[in-house]
Amino acid sequence: RERLLTLVPEGLNEDALVKQLSAIAKTVGVSLTSMSFSLQNAQTDGADTVTISANFTGYYNSLISLLQALETSPRLFKVSSVGVQLGEVTEAGYLMTFNVSLEAYYQ
């Protein structure tokens, strides 16, 4: 039951979602620049869904690390789309903006 509550916690708790995504971003070396939430009305297998649109800035390798971190996160996330926009060229490569749409679940 404890593991289930970690994957799909009780209540939406947007603050916790912001903290979790910020921590993941910091760990993989990207900057979380903005985030918005959209509530879904229908339940998915007994869980409610919130759609999150998050924008990050970083390099290509960081995007891959971000997606892997979301996949292995203690909280259940489902990535539905990823958009990439090339930015300025630096010594480390292209600085990119990533728009990641994902879903999180809560009870």
Order of helices and strands: HHEEHEE
Give the number of DSSP strands: 4
Structural class: alpha+beta
Going across the biggest sheet, name each strand in turn: 1-2-4-3
**N-C termini distance:** 13 Å
Largest sheet: 4 strands, antiparallel
Strand content: 35-45%
The portion of residues assigned to helices is 25-40%
Quaternary organisation of the protein chains: single chain
General form: elongated
What is the arithmetic mean of pLDDT?
90
Task: Please tally the helical runs, counting DSSP H or I stretches of 4 or more residues.
Answer: 3
Radius of gyration: 14 Å
Uncertain spans, ≥5 residues at pLDDT below 50?
none
List keywords for this structure.
107 residues, alpha+beta, four-stranded antiparallel β-sheet, 31% helix, 45% strand
Question: What this model shows, in words?
Answer:
There is one protein chain. The chain has helices spanning 2-7, 14-28, 60-71; strands spanning 31-39, 48-58, 77-90, 93-106. The chain is of the alpha+beta class and 107 residues long. It has a four-stranded antiparallel beta sheet. Helix 2 (14-28) packs across helix 3. The chain is elongated and about 45 Å long. The two termini are 13 Å apart.
